[in-house]
Amino acid sequence: MYSPTPDDWHEANRARWDERVPIHAASEFYDLDAFRAGKDALRDFELAEVGDVTGRSLLHLQCHIGLDTLSWARHGAARVVGLDFSEPAVDTARSLAADLGLGPDRAAFVASDVYDAAEAVPDRAYDIVYTGVGALCWLPDLDRWAEIAAALVAPGGFLYVSEFHPLADSFDDETGSTLVHDYFVRDPWVDTTPGTYADIDAPTVHNRSVEWVHPVGEVVTALAKAGLRIEFLHEHDVTLVPRYATLERHEDGYHRFPAGRPRVPLMYSLKASRPA
């Protein structure tokens, strides 16, 4: 249900994520054995849109257990830094980095709230600041996030965002065709669903979470106000999870609507640069 922001939103969300870290680390969804063996965690459109990262520094905000972060290191980034508010997630990411033979000079992880990132990360500016899917919905204040992220982009560098499209949250869960929620709502969404997207049947205790829907226009405007130049905004008709019962999983790992059905954007990506 939609409601005013609870005072304990941050503590509730962190408890939820802390509990789910070991579940995710053991899940087939993340498949850490395959990742250690070389499986890439990044999406094809992310690799194409970010481009060559060889020799560049990259900061990953809200990195969870670090698979995307470490994948950028595998693609040649000179130094990657991952930041997440969950200490168990950061511990898991550090362990994975060690398994891959990546020391802290190549891959460092910091336990910190994203709103404190400017003080928490080891460097003051990065060639690339990256935010992966499923991150922005946990933040109540997008303007503050944009200001912090923009300040961490080095001159001549850029911020890259890859996210689930907020329009997808407006449709019914069964068919994804009936509009049931207000796209422009600003109230938080309080959820108490047990389990996790990586294992829906996993027994869990900390099931309460507080999330926000941020329309794409809000994201773009916040970044522009923070002084970044929007290079592109791309919308994608695929998603990573079976958001609706009617979605079909394809061999490339994406979920899509059946052929012949009208499509809506399910993900989006954007690039915003800082002048040199």
TrEMBL record:
<protein>
    <submittedName>
        <fullName>Class I SAM-dependent methyltransferase</fullName>
        <ecNumber>2.1.1.-</ecNumber>
    </submittedName>
</protein>
<dbReference type="GO" id="GO:0008168">
    <property type="term" value="F:methyltransferase activity"/>
</dbReference>
<dbReference type="GO" id="GO:0032259">
    <property type="term" value="P:methylation"/>
</dbReference>
<feature type="domain" description="Methyltransferase">
    <location>
        <begin position="59"/>
        <end position="157"/>
    </location>
</feature>
<dbReference type="Pfam" id="PF13649">
    <property type="entry name" value="Methyltransf_25"/>
</dbReference>
<keyword id="KW-0489">Methyltransferase</keyword>
<dbReference type="InterPro" id="IPR029063">
    <property type="entry name" value="SAM-dependent_MTases_sf"/>
</dbReference>
<keyword id="KW-0808">Transferase</keyword>
<dbReference type="InterPro" id="IPR041698">
    <property type="entry name" value="Methyltransf_25"/>
</dbReference>
